[in-house]
Amino acid sequence: MPFDDRHDLAYLDFTMAGCVMTYLKNSGVASPGHTDVLRDCRSKLRAAVALLARSAEYREGLRVFHGLLAMAELILADEA
Questions:
Q1: I want to staple 42 with a disulfide (CB 3.0 to 4.6 A). Which of 7, 64, 72, 75 is the partner?
Q2: What's the DSSP call for residue 31?
Q3: Dist. CA 68–CA 35, nearest whole Å
C-alpha cells in the first residue's frame, strides 16, 4: 500500500462519507466546518490518487479515491 498507514485511506473514506451525507441532508449546503474538512480531505485525496495511480495493483482503490476527490471538488465548487 502506498500510504504508510492503510488507516489513512479508511479515514479519508469515512470522513468524506460524513461530509457528503451532511451536505445531502442539508439540501446541498455544507457547513463552514465541513467545508474546512473537505478542503483538507481534497489535498489528502489528491495525494492518495497520485500514489495509487503509480501501481496497477491498486486500480480499484484508485477508482474509489478518484471518485471521492471528484465529490469533494464538486461540493467545494458548489459552496464557492
A1: 72
A2: -
A3: 15
Cell 500514489 found at: 51
Q: pLDDT digit string (tens) for 17-53?
A: 899 899 999 999 988 888 999 999 999 999 889 888 8
28: left (phi over 0), alpha (psi -120 to 50) or beta: left
SS3 state at 39: helix
Question: Taking a C-beta distance cutoff of 8 angstroms, is the pair 47, 2 a contact?
Answer: no
Joined together, the cell numbers standing for residue 49 give 490518487
Q: Where are the alpha helices (DSSP H) in the chain?
A: 6-25, 32-52, 59-79
Q: Taking the C-alpha atoms of 5, 8, 10 and 16 in order, what is their torsion angle to the nearest 10 degrees?
A: -170
